Amino acid sequence: VFHLGTQNVKEAESPLSRAFKNANVDAVLLGLETLSDEKKNNHKNDPKLAMQAVLFQCTEVALGFMKQSCFDGYWVQLRLLELRFAVQVLREARSFWETHVDSTRSRFRRRFWQLANAILSTQDVEYGALPDTRVRFTCGYVDTLVANVLHDLRVTVMKLEPSKYVKMGDILLPSIVDIVRSRRQNVSNLGSEMLFQLMLRCWKAQESLLRLENITGAYVYRVVTDTCKPKKTRNASSMVDLRVEAPDIYRYEQVFTTRLKKDLDRQIEDGSINDLSFVSACDDFFQRTSFLFNNLYEVETTEKKATNEDRLVDVLLSIIVSFQTTGNKALFEIYANTLRELHESMRNFLELGYSLMLHADSLGWSNKTLKVIGSLPSETETTRHFGLLQKAKDIFSGVGFYGKCAEISGKLAESQRTTFYNIPALCDELKLQAQYYKNIIQADTIYPKYYLASYSGSTAFNEEVKNRSFIYRSWLSYREFCKKLQEKHPRAKIQKNTGDKFKDSGNQTEQMVGVTTVFTSSLQKVEGKQDSWDTSEMNERYKQYLKKTNVQAFTFKRTYAANAPEVTTLMRQHGTDNMGLGDEGSFVKSTLHPNMCVVQTFVLTEEAFPCARRRVPVVSRTNKLLSPLQAALVSINEKNEQILEATKQLALAQFSSAESKVGTSRLIEQLSQHLNGTIDTGAQEGIRGYIRSFLESDYLDKQPADGKTIVELKVQMKTQTKLLDKGLALFGEHCGEQLKPMHNHLLVMLAKLTKDVAVAIHSSDKRYLPRRQNTASLAASSASIMRSSVSFVT
Q: Residue 27's pLDDT is what?
């Protein structure tokens, strides 16, 4: 063949020589008997390995022929000879593989399927100036070769045991997908059959499709990352549509979803498949694979900036969970590191700590060397595990979350005890853990604020947020948070403190966002029960820590007219006897605000706060109609929490850096608003209103069952006066000369308020406690709560 080429086309001599030399075609033309002595010596004691090496060499040569022919269109017969040689090599390799399937190496199997795919992908050859009859002959010859290969591969696939087929899944899948995407219908049908067999045999081998999801995830990652180079920048305000944005990726997705689903439906109709568990697992596989295509594409193409932050975090966590479920550790680490880098760039330090813990929890304590990922160097698994946990501990310590620091020290101590048997290191970690627990009860911690954001407008927002509600974690004040949300949605109208109710304009294309401040609650409170720490004597700072961590329930309240539909519905659902209300609202009219009722709303989130994301969807709501006393207790608790947080923020600001002191004036203003709004109130508002309605009136005569709630109200009143005293003292240190008159006025008003509270509580105790049978229990309860409160204020 080489001689003919050089004899008739002199100018092609040099290219042909290079092509044949690179393909080692001399060995092929001599019947593969002239392989190097080194190859023969390496495998002289193992005929199987020697034969495998020869066939591998042949496959390499044939694959080279398929990728680029040595001849142009005038040498069509020689091109067909190349194809025939490739088919013959494939047939010999298949025969050897079927006989020695357990002893073949992965690279041999990979080359086998690559060659098969290359042959099946052959559409035609370059014909040059051949007559039509010769063209038709050539097409028929190629079709015959492809048909022979199809038959051989079908036989091979059906002969393989399920476990062997599944084991080679990572080698098979790329070739199978390329075969499915062939323009030849018979070739494409074979690919579909092979892909369905892979799915079916994964199920038979493990009764699960996790293995298939694992190798599919790795394949999808390669497809998406290769297609998105160079990276594009898409508009994150719209949801991903692969059909329009990335048609190439969309066609790959169709192979795993639409095409495979059609094959499954056909098998079900034929009666070949009747396992409902398998069908259900397939449906989940189709859905998760489609999501993975969309999510990976969105992460690769969306710009990493503040307005896209929440959406990107949600998508990244979805990808991370997917790879974690399927056991793909390499890709899990890649996207866990991407999440860490995103939070770090956005300075979300609390979420960054949780992201580091998420990454660290997937690692063990082995000496296996891990690859470079982003800023993480190549290091052992143990070193990376220690490094991530230590960094997370430093971050949590910086934001005052000492409970998480103690948890991390506990994990490190356990590893020293059970894995490394390092007793000195164990003792050091236990000492650190003890110190972190001490910090919880000794140091003030500023906990984040939470806001409920509800998006309204059926066509105004995209599917991500349309007609949905979210809880946001933030360090910003309410006004600053609304401003930031407005920047993210410049066309939206921000409606403040609306809860889940909007002033509907009737225009469904108008963007409306309702923002409400919410307070942490608990699942026990949602069910009408008390938290365990409410009835126990413990350090108040530790109680605050328990209330502010691992929070999945939040609450806010709204005031309605007594005849409002919301109130009427709740009365009808629960009955007025359980609400502390009279038959026609007469009891309501005798309290602070005649003709008004208070409804408390509990919202439950998809995930507990704090976590690796600062925005979590709301999954359910529960409304509860409060009696006037319950409403008063909720209000005073919320106000106490606001005063406490404002005082702590200003107290800690004086120890911050010069850069942080820029916001001190804002903190002074914030504290003054809480103090002024609580101390300098009218006779019908705040504590003075509660005294008049519940302590000086005959409330307990009408509602004797509320005795314990009255005790709680008295305790919260005393707590509030002490918090006000501490806050006012701090305000006096920072307010400056301009606000001194206001400070002096508040001092006078607070002294009068404190005296009024003490007199009212004393009079109420003197009036009611001796007449009650459970005087001792109420007094004990009051003393217990007061001891905790005094300790906390001190």
A: 41
